[in-house]
């Protein structure tokens, strides 16, 4: 009997959970190597998880719609030629998932022996994992026999063996004493799945009591406590304790929405942000594009592609806005400049606001940018954008005019240092050559990190883009 229990891998840098959207197989199905088994949604994208083994699906370890923690069992495969295990059989072998960085390293070495020859999304092959794992110093142990010839080994340890701080935090949040948890990893290493199992077996009252440290209690909290309701939670009757209103819905902040909330909170708390804006006459740009569309309708870029080209030219002239602030090993802040521009753009999808980026956008013409804008919008809306496509931007362009608004004080897409917003284009009275005329007007808004530049640099960049929109032919002649 050989049952492989596959653990949910880290499908992107630092992700700790994913929503199980859909099973692509059922228990008892026969599968091949690399066959997709499940579709999961992370904070970054929708991902199909393939199996590194052929055989029969023995068990599916979650329900559709359930949030699954990284390193928690996802599915078990009974390998070809094996019989179904009996209840008294030894526990199944659990395949430990690789991290995203380990996956990239595994791709540089051809795997050998058992398992898929491919480096799969988020995990890689068993041999690749073995090559990257560190050897741990052996701990004190005692070897005994169970009387049936099997050798049992019990380890004597003075402290819990935990590497990941996320596992410690999960145990602390759930009120689990980590020293009382038996680890199922190598050498007794405690994994997230072990904390999950300990939570399931712990008495609810014990978990709540252990996870609620003594702290100052507000009058509202005291009222909730006296009525048997935890602060911020709804009572059994469905009436909110603070407002007194019936609770209509309760939606967890998870997946994409959680990632957006985290990034926006960090942006507001860490970046000293300033905003400048300007009204722009886009009449000449619209007339130029209309003339191009008449002669070559199939190859005429959209307005956003032209504006993106002007933005790229502006960033080349004002590179301070195409940077990032990081902290070195000593804890000192550094401004990191880049040899190239990855232009991100906001794309509204059913899963929330995505910001895919065009890699090395400085090398593309307006037509090339238009193709990439279309392609990345489609893959983002389909949930198929890669982690790299969604996290590698160095500057963001946001066309919120499609929502029918004129302006917005946009939040910088952390950890970038600036974002340019474009409002809707509409007819407005405007003075041209001393006379009042009806022109196609829009508003540009630039939010920037005041740590990397002053207002003069930000205004210079914004004015450059505005002038390019107002006189596109002269600017495009130099690009």
UniProtKB/TrEMBL annotation:
Listed SUPFAM superfamilies: CoA-dependent acyltransferases, Peripheral subunit-binding domain of 2-oxo acid dehydrogenase complex, Single hybrid motif
Keywords noted in UniProt: Acyltransferase, Lipoyl, Transferase
Domain of life of the native organism: Bacteria
Peripheral subunit-binding (PSBD) domain mapped to chain residues: 162-199
Stored Gene3D superfamilies: 2.40.50.100, Chloramphenicol acetyltransferase-like domain, E3-binding domain
InterPro entries assigned to the protein according to its UniProt record, in alphabetical order: 2-oxoacid_DH_actylTfrase, 2-oxoacid_DH_E2_comp, Biotin_lipoyl, CAT-like_dom_sf, E3-bd_dom_sf, PSBD, Single_hybrid_motif
EC number: 2.3.1.-
Cofactor(s) for this UniProt protein: (R)-lipoate
Domain Lipoyl-binding: 3-78
Protein family (similarity comment): Belongs to the 2-oxoacid dehydrogenase family.
Record-given protein name: Dihydrolipoamide acetyltransferase component of pyruvate dehydrogenase complex
Source organism (scientific name): Paeniglutamicibacter terrestris
